[in-house]
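debug: dumping io for the single-chain case to check the tokenizer round-trip. Nothing else runs in this session.
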Amino acid sequence: MKLSVIIPAYNESDNMKTGVLTQIHDYLENNVKSYEVIIVDDGSSDDTVKRVEEFVKGVKSFRLIKNNHGGKAIAVMTGLLESTGEVGLFTDMDQATPISEVDKLLPYFDKNFDIVIGSRQGRKGAPVIRKMMAFGFSFIRTIVLGLPFKDTQCGFKAFNRRSIVSIFPVLKERWHKHLQKKGAAVNAAFDVETLFIAKKLGFKIKEVKVDWHHVGTERVQVIRDSYDGAIDILKIRINDLLGRYSKYAQV
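debug: decoded output
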């Protein structure tokens, strides 16, 4: 099984100084038979691109895609659609969930699951306000959309090729209509909408507990992101009622 690892990047200079790409490379070289790593820069304004370019220059299995700034969701979908592996995993540059946790996800693809998502149960070390936000978001998500998952927001999700080509070409086109023009964007609704569409299409989804630690790279803006997340969940329900997900189909 060839694994494609997608890493969205926006102003990641501080994380890269810790040697995360070397850590990811060393783990995959020693533990995964066939893989590629695609780093998608989301229009960084620091020296992220320069640092990535210097790293990938001598590493055959890594490559860089440069996007204009549009938010994490667009970066992730760009990488998944450019990937060639039977399984595509997206993970964060800060490695709050270490790449080694992929070992917990991959076996489920041999059990005929199409999508396997990491779940950060407990969120040890996270600020109290983050935990409160997560609880509120989960409550609204369950009531409005009926998704049965404990954690839809963990930045560690894997998709088989069939689910990638069924979901993301149409979803990416729609997300392009509301690109994030400036600043970091966590795009919380992206994960929810992806799983909502996957569930509607009948894809088999497995939630797996993964190790996670708070690394201190705070991209969340409490008031704005809480408000945007709640509004976006309502939009997903409205889109569903209006039949706007009829364009999606299993391949």
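debug: round-trip ok. The longest helix spans residues 222-241.
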